[in-house]
Amino acid sequence: MRPTDCSYQKSHEWCKIENGIATIGITDFAVSHLSDLVFLDLPRKGASVTIGESFGEIESVKAVSSLYAPVSGEVIDINKDLPDNLEWLAQEPFAKAWMIKVKVTAKSPDLITAAAYDAHCQAEG
Amino acid sequence: MLLRVLRDDPAPAAWNMAVDEALLTLAATPTLRLYGWSPHAVSLGYFQRLADFTDLPSGTPMVRRLTGGGAIHHGDEITFSLALDTHLLPRDVHDSYRLVHDAAIAALKRHGIASSCLAAGELPAARPSERWCFALPGRGDVVTPTGKLLGSAQRRIVRPRPRVLHHGSLVVRRPGLTPFVASIADTCANADDRLEHAVREALVEQIAAALGTVPTAGSLTAPERALAERLATARYGDAAFLHAR
């Protein structure tokens, strides 16, 4: 069961917005499809992210993939311990494995609910 | 569906990587590109640290790839890139590798070169240096009794639409910096230019067939070439990108 207080992108990032701050990560579906993660690259604190543009990159044994921002704004915090503990992504993708926190200036109009995201994942297989 | 096939002359490393990124970004049709390296060069996986390669001979041309994995010394090899929409490949990443690897094995077999996909549990003990792609045969890799024969890596993007860039390096003769790799020449005494050409064309046929496509010779479009020219200078030819990690 995916958290219902999060919004989702079809590119498999999740986003939880509280008091104008978005906490962002990737979903269990993304993690299971990437498998065998080896590297994660996140932006620096103070960097700007833009809706739909890459905010980081992740490498599994077989592929490098981009991570896409669901909001625009300034990165105010990063989970600096995550790149050295990538197993957290499989264990707690919606909690301990959050990636960045962003002070939101705009959010993507394409964010979907947990139920809609579940349906999207089922369709993707 | 057509598979556009680009048969490019050997070119400098920055140009090669720039063209592949341009194809990932812009190619409107599935595209298989075959190319070579002049001068021979070392490509680093996207996340690799340049500091781990300070022991290479001075002046060795180097470039950072957009794809992941380990470094490759590109010498006498059949290099190819496949750029296409994600949905044209099997959904599972491992299966997408398998499609390309099976095609390579079939192409090699047609010319009397035996190879196979490495099954889990058959990993060789000898790993001379894990920074090199060919030192690390993994599940599904194309191997011969002497080692790993085909290096593969992918880049996947979702926007503007889901796309995959698959890199492949099929070794013809062992390159100097990575003598532990397998090569076609190991098992084939007549590994000359004619055989290399024949294997290359068999690879085109097999990949096209595996994708259910018809191979058709093509060339870069003007927008692809323009983007490649920008990327060759601004990214792959820029020391800052090579030194980024």
Helicity level of chain A, as a percent range? Answer: 10-25%
What's the CATH architecture of chain B?
Answer: 2-Layer Sandwich
Q: Radius of gyration of chain B from the CA trace?
A: 17 Å
N-to-C SSE string of chain A, H for helix and E for strand: EEEHEEEEEHEH
Major sheet of chain A: order of its strands? 1-2-3-9-8-5
Contiguous low-pLDDT stretches of chain B (5 residues minimum) are none
**CATH level-1 class of chain A:** Mainly Beta
- Biggest pleated sheet of chain B: 6 strands, mixed
Report the biggest beta sheet of chain A as strand number plus sense, adding barrel if it closes.
Answer: 6 strands, antiparallel
- List the quaternary state of the chains: heterodimer
| Structural class category of chain B | alpha/beta
Give the end-to-end Cα distance of chain A, rounded to a whole number of Å: 16 Å
The SSE string of chain B, one letter per element, is EHEEEEEHEEEEEHHEHH
Low-confidence stretches of chain A: none
* Number of strand elements of chain A: 9
Strand content of chain A: 35-45%
Largest interface: A-B, 20 and 20 residues
CATH homologous superfamily of chain A? Answer: RNA polymerase II/Efflux pump adaptor protein, barrel-sandwich hybrid domain
Query: Could you name the CATH homologous superfamily of chain B?
Result: Bira Bifunctional Protein, Domain 2
- Rg calc of chain A: 13 Å
